[in-house]
Amino acid sequence: MTIALVSLLLTIAALWAMARLSRSDTRTARLATPAIFGLLLIWLWQAAVMGFHIPRILLPAPTEVVSALFSHTAMLRRDFVQTFVRSVIPGYVIGCGFGFLAALAIDRSAFLKRGLLPLGGLISAMPIVGVAPIAVMWFGFGWQSKAAVVVAMTIFPMLVNTTAGLAESGALERDLMTSYAAGYWLTLLKLRLPAALPHIFTALKLNSTLALIGAVVAEFFGSPVFGMGFRISTAAASLNLDVVWATITIAALTGSLSFALLALAERAVTFWHPSFRNPS
Amino acid sequence: MTREQSGLRRAVDTAFPVFVVAVAAVVLWYAISAIIGTALLPRPDQVAATLGTSVFGWPVTSPRNLLYHAGVTAEAALVGLAFAIVLGVAIAVGIVHFRVLDRSLMPWVIASQTIPILAIAPMVVVVLGNLGLSGLPPKAAISGYLAFFPIVVGMVTGLRAPDSIQFDLMRTYSASGQQVFAKLRLPASVAFLFPALRVSVALSVMGAIVAELPTGAQAGLGARLLAGSYYGQTLMIWATLVMAALLSASLLGVTALAEAGLRAWRGGRL
Fold first, then answer.
1. For chain A, which terminus, N or C, has the lower number of CB atoms within 10 Å?
2. Which CATH number fits domain A68-277: 1.25.40.10, 1.10.3720.10, 3.40.50.970, 3.20.20.70?
3. Domain boundaries, chain A
């Protein structure tokens, strides 16, 4: 009863605060509004679990998730290292790097560009995670098969976006480079790659999410007895939902932090782009 | 040269390079499977033959027919997609019209795209299973959840796409909020809805396939992939993969047709 009353009051207070904050345009207000919303949701989640006595096998309370985070630290760290450090990062680097180099190679031939781009776009729209069982068959249960799936998932978005980016620089600017007697490589380095950077970062950000999905899903098809995908599927099957939610929390934090790091890097490298130059 | 001829010419110009690259990819596939052996990588004709016998050798209702499994997966993906469109458009309309929703909800919608949402698939399946919901609902829920975010983001961008002078013009007509929405915002958003829809269609198929993995489902392309993986049947995995690609491509084709139809109806532009 008290929980319901407190929740109701908190909800009203939070709605009032958000309505007030959304009228002002300061940086604090812009950050505080979603933060209040998130905290309210977490409180309502906690209150609902306690108030309605929702069984733990359906939905553990946020406090139980946090305590699972602390009581299983060693196991969760091992899962994180296996999935993120060993599978995602190598796969991401290889996939993005290879996609980038392939785009540079294709860019030299208009014919290849016209032939590969529609196919690349189509393949990007395919459920590529499906190659996971094949990767497990080829490369075994270890991190290598997961990295291979990540490579397969990241390569085409990178290829398509880099190729689009390389076409970004205008004819006038290229003429200018020609008038400076700049060759292919110099033009590439000084003009076309910087102009392509916004597209490349789009692919890098998209791929950071795809890479995590690929590695986690590939672990559903077979893995050693650790790893985030393995943990989620086995803990869910044995109804340890607090461990599942703890792993999902780590996955969500990893995904958001990777994305945020890439966004910061993008801002630092493409400070000249209109989307960042505009102060408003 | 007449216009039809130049149109044909353009079509050949775009299709020919794609055709050549596709043929090159098939040749490369043959070469690789010849080098590493057909046990690891079956030849394209073996995959096509497996797919052919599966599709034409059995009635569509038989679990041995891959079309049956594609149908099961497509059902989940389409139900999920329908929910995603209804909910996504509704929330986008709310975000555009209420500043509080824009400030509080929109950052979470954007942040949630950076999260590997598919990771929650096994949990959703287990939890909904405990509630007595198995089969279609958990799969549709997962694929709908995945497909939901691109639609919200696309529709919010689209509903805000009109210029401020266009809004000013509506004001000089003393148009009500509903009229601005129906005559300006909604028509403008269609051009942003379709790119979002293409992403969502691809995601919903992927979501439906992955959702079939942890259920121990008997039917569906994901269940087929898992069975092939357990029993080491490489050919079945490849045939299922090709079927998944065909399913994705045909749903994308339907989306493109709808887009072209709408474009024609609206006089050649979106």
1. C
2. 1.10.3720.10
3. 2-54, 68-277
Cα(B67)–Cα(B56) distance, rounded to whole angstroms?
9
Of A137, A107, A116, A267, the closest CA to residue B23 belongs to: A116
Amino acid at site B69: H
Instruction: Tell me the mean pLDDT in the region B206-216.
Output: 79
Compute the average pLDDT of residues B227-244.
84
Collect all residues of chain B within an 8 Å Cβ-Cβ radius of residue A251.
115-116, 119
Q: Residue B4: what pLDDT?
A: 58
pLDDT surpassing 90 at residue A96: yes
Q: What is the DSSP letter of A129?
A: G
**Total CB pairs under 8 A between chain A and B:** 174
Q: Do B109 and B152 form a contact (C-beta atoms < 8 A)?
A: yes
**How many Cβ atoms sit within 10 Å of the Cβ of residue B61?**
9
ipTM surpasses cut 0.85: no
pLDDT band at residue B217 under the 50/70/90 scheme: low
Instruction: Give tens-digit pLDDT for B98-127.
Output: 888 888 888 888 777 777 777 778 778 877
Q: What tokens appear for A140 in the block?
A: 């075994």
| Residue A170 forms contact with B (CB below 8 Å) | no
Phi, psi angle pair for B216, to nearest 5°: 65, 30
Range list of H helices, chain A: 2-21, 27-51, 62-71, 73-80, 89-107, 110-124, 132-139, 143-166, 171-179, 184-187, 193-220, 228-237, 241-269, 274-277
Degrees (nearest 5) of the Cα angle A147, A106, B15? 105
Q: Compare all CA atoms of chain B with the CA of A240 and give the residue at the minimum distance.
A: B123
Cβ–Cβ of A38/B127 closer than 8 Å? no
Query: Are the CB atoms for A125 and B248 separated by under 8 Å?
Result: yes
Q: What is the mean pLDDT of chain B?
A: 84
Please report which confidence band the pLDDT of residue B1 belongs to, taking 50, 70 and 90 as the band edges: very low
B18, B20, B210: residue with CB nearest A217: B210
Distance of alpha carbon A206 from alpha carbon B216, whole angstroms: 30
